[in-house]
């Protein structure tokens, strides 16, 4: 890795020690001075890496100048959207410059085209709030504090995914800065191969500065609930969840469900379902797809309304408030083909590995969660031109997410997560139900993600990598993030 000194030398940057500000000394080389900002927060302090300089561009041209300079001078850098990655170095860098996109935060809506133009440094909270007066919304984070850039380039599971596919499938076009500083548009019409690769391509092709997104009608009400169920309800709940994984989500794609189990410290495990419904809700006559979770057939501890006949923004804000930044987290993910016994076995593995030694670490909590990806979701992705994921049949995305307090426990928690994941993957293989796909947005630091998209996708991504980033700037000089094999 290049040292900061090397970066200074090679770029002609001069450090103003007092303000920790960098200025380009040579205006011909550098076009305009770059100033260093102070650090914005990371959602998980376990992912934090402090860059030597944080550069916060005001517009796309600033991004282009910086990238061109870094490419020419061989300077390492990182790209940050909302800083919600779980992995250190993905949106931070040691001995390098962090391009933080937080000032690229405009949101506009064109009623003629029905498209929304979103600056890549936005968080979903601002996007939902800005679009709400137009009675439209977009496929975005289920938690509103999440950043737009990382979420969309990693796929993006949204409350609307059963109807509209991955959020990334709903991108109409992007504005992207390539390694040579060129600003181009990629869409189904222009640079169409690059466009497809970006959907799951993370930071491998360039810095995306703007996303133009298809919108969804938001004139109808949106509802969200959290059902909380005791450990003793696991069998009943998982049976219902299995049914949702195997046709339930397709039977009423206005619904969306995240199934999870959690352990908080030394307390007994609980189950939860976050469920949303994109239409009017009548408590006396709920949509049949929701009924099993709301009535008492599956004994519950509480059904907590998040927003009744409200908006998607309200639901995402509420979830975000429950997942505030500041705690340490890591993540691990894999996928399976739906199987009731396997789902229960995986939950048992997770519970078994969550030993007393792990549970008694300060601030410990852990979540085991799964997300069905059904036929209509996949059909919607295909109808919109496809993506990089290489998924051909319905599956269930699974993830393990521990939380803890102390940096001293970081390594233990990463090991714990990897151990649970590896055992679960083996159990899925043994059951003949292992699905190769790994959801990039939930990928842990020790996981290979892009190879899980399959040979055809990887080959397409590699070919376009050579075409659009021939010097491999976004592999070589941007060390963080999930990389394309060979780059
Ligand atoms: C509380 C919480 C809730 C979440 N909910 C969901 C959910 O509902 N659905 C889901 O799919 N995921 C979800 N995620 C995962 C989330 O999508 C990823 O963590 C995602 O990377 C966050 O995007 P970001 O811009 O905040 O990330 P960052 O940490 O800023 O960036 C992540 C990666 O993307 C790259 N990147 C970011 N912006 C750009 C850009 N403009 N151009 C090129 N590369 C870029 C970065 O270099 C980095 O490698 C959630 C995460 C958290 C912490």
Automatic annotation (TrEMBL):
Protein's UniProt keywords contain Oxidoreductase: yes
Pfam families: FAD_binding_4 (PF01565)
Signal peptide: 1-19
Gene3D superfamilies cross-referenced by the UniProt entry: 3.30.465.10
Alphabetical keyword list: FAD, Flavoprotein, Oxidoreductase, Signal
Domain of life of the native organism: Eukaryota
PANTHER family reported in the protein's UniProt record: BINDING OXIDOREDUCTASE, PUTATIVE (AFU_ORTHOLOGUE AFUA_1G17690)-RELATED (PTHR42973), FAD-BINDING PCMH-TYPE DOMAIN-CONTAINING PROTEIN (PTHR42973:SF54)
Database matches in SUPFAM superfamilies: FAD-binding/transporter-associated domain-like (SSF56176)
FAD-binding PCMH-type domain segment(s): 47-218
GO molecular function term, any single one: oxidoreductase activity
Name of the protein: FAD-binding PCMH-type domain-containing protein
Naturally occurring in which organism (per UniProt): Orbilia javanica
Family in the record: Belongs to the oxygen-dependent FAD-linked oxidoreductase family.
